[in-house]
Amino acid sequence: MKKITYFAVFEKTKTGFSVYFPDVPGCITCGDDFEHSMRMAQEVLGLHLYGLEKDSEPFPQHTDNIPKLESGDIVAAVSVFPALVKDEIENRREKTNVTIPHWLKVAAEAEGLNYSRLLENAIKETLGIAS
Q1: What is the per-residue burial (b if ≥16 Cβ within 10 Å, else e) of 80-117?
Q2: Global pTM value
Q3: Which of 1, 27, 104, 106 is an S-S bond match for 48, by CB 3.0 to 4.6 Å?
């Protein structure tokens, strides 16, 4: 499984850290402390790379471009596994509202039917997707 790593700059603020990636324009976040900021950096990097992949854009090139740091700032490597991020996003469960006649809802509940499973199976069958 491919791991992608970029350097992140953690700039000290009054309330924690602001984080950006010099090699990944537009990929920014923040956190209450360094540990929280690191978790947020991993999340935003994963989401940013996922968006690039969905848009058929290449991942940015790695450089050693680290700007001048102020006192209290930190540079750290942040790694993500794009395949895991993609799998998590594309396979998460989402709520969807549906409308059915009341009598059908009553009959389905009397039989103990699981609406989510039933709808998922019906959509897969309609689309010809094997379970």
Answers
A1: bbbeebeeeeeeeeeeeeeeeeeeeeeeeeeeeeeeee
A2: 0.79
A3: 27
Show the tokens assigned to 25.
């324009």
Tens digit of each residue's pLDDT (9 = 90 or more) over 32-51: 999 999 999 999 999 999 99
Residue 2, C-beta contacts closer than 8 angstroms, at least 6 positions apart: 81, 82, 83
CB 79, CB 38: distance < 8 Å: no
Determine how β-strand 16-20 pairs with β-strand 74-80: unpaired
Distance from C-alpha of 106 to C-alpha of 129, rounded to nearest angstrom? 29
Judge whether 90 and 51 are in contact, CB under 8 Å.
no
